[in-house]
Amino acid sequence: MTAGHTGNPSTAGRAAALSARLEARPGMPPGPKASGPVRLVRAPGRVNLIGEHTDYNEGLVLPAAIDREIWIAFQGWDRPEVELTSAEFDDTRSFSFEGLSPETRGAKSWIDYVAATAWAMREAGLPIRGFRGVMNSTIPIGSGLSSSAALEMASSWALAVPGAPRPDPGAMAAIAQRGENRYVGVNCGIMDQFASAAGMAGNALLIDCRINQFTTAPMPTGLSLVVCETGSSRKLEASAYNTRRSECELGVKLIAEREPGVRALRDVDEAMLERNRDRLPEVVARRCEHVVREDARVMASVAALRDGDLDALGRLFAASHASLRDLYEVSSPELDAMVDIAVSVPGVIASRMTGAGFGGCTVSLVERRAEEALREAVLAQYQKRTGLEPRVYIVAAVDGAGEVILGA
Ligand code: ADP
Ligand code: MG
User: Fold this and answer.
1) Residue minimizing CA distance to atom 8 of ligand 1
2) Is 96 a member of any domain?
3) What is the CATH number of the domain that holds 88?
4) What CA–CA distances, in Å, run from 20 to 13, 139, 179, 250, 303?
5) Which residues span the domain enclosing 68?
6) By the number of CB atoms within 10 A of the CB, which of 191, 310, 321, 325 ranks highest?
7) Which residues lie with the beta carbon below 6 Å from any ligand 1 atom?
8) For the segment 297-311, what is each residue's pLDDT rounded down to a tens digit?
């Protein structure tokens, strides 16, 4: 089984608590009882180091799966149904595989992410099995650390028929992404699902979103990954995200009129963009410039990580943040303040907004000795500057989704 985590005391404790909650929950009478042992699957959230708004432009991203995870304890059963409790919401929901389709989806609910995954797996020709389960999570919900993708990837493991062949992580990510796009109705790229599916402990993943393939980029030893949550709402995000996507598409269309072979911004380099700038509305040109240069920054960051070139990492993160703020216009005063505070702390190597923007989190690479200084600086200064309460997470890069083998 891939990504099997060996049991440790906290793993065992969390597993026992989930299983107890599952066993204590009344069944769903009438009908066959669930049988077999309680199994456990997990899926991590993710933080993107660099490469923002590039995934839907067939470009490059560099996320890491992080040790903030969703776990599902479940028992398979022979009915075409899922019944799942979210411990965070203290809410139990169910859905049937019969007639499952985006058209007949009921009122919006968190269970949609599970149903979406079941629908997309079945559409892709993968066999699925019903289960009853309980889940809990250490991923902050709606903060940009991809709790939704983790929920989908954990679901994909719980829904899988034991022993059936499993697509590779990139293919499984594409299936889950299709579920989120078509069934939930969120027009996300593939990065979140991919990172949650394919994560490798101690590594970031360089994902080529054109071909859905990845290579690993080791995190430098001695550096910590710190996520700072701004606590600011992302309510502008959905509409602005869709607008950015259409601006990029318009850029591609106008450039392709003169440059045959251009299918996506991935095909455009800086020289080509300059040659064609006069064809583009000013805003569209700025959006394209961000994407084209961000792809180049991802490659430069991978080299800097490999060479341990900390100065270069600092410059690349700063350039990415400035570009997202000024050219792509998806930062916010809160994100800018958080980055500002972080880079003023000695030992903070690099800091930028991460995720789609308008709120959510920043990501920083930090010398280990500076972890606490960063935390203190954020706690002391951020609320004064913004009136919002920050959260600081020191995270580690972990393996992607899989079954947890207890006692292994
Ligand atoms: P993000 O993926 O950045 O955390 P999203 O808005 O994409 O934010 O996804 C958040 C949604 O995922 C929640 O509104 C909920 O529907 C679902 N979700 C995430 N975590 C849980 C959980 N622990 N229990 C139930 N639903 C969850
Ligand atoms: Mg999400």
Assistant:
1) 142
2) yes
3) 3.30.230.10
4) 11, 22, 31, 53, 47
5) 5-218+398-405
6) 191
7) 86, 88-89, 110, 113, 137, 141-148, 151
8) 999 999 999 999 999
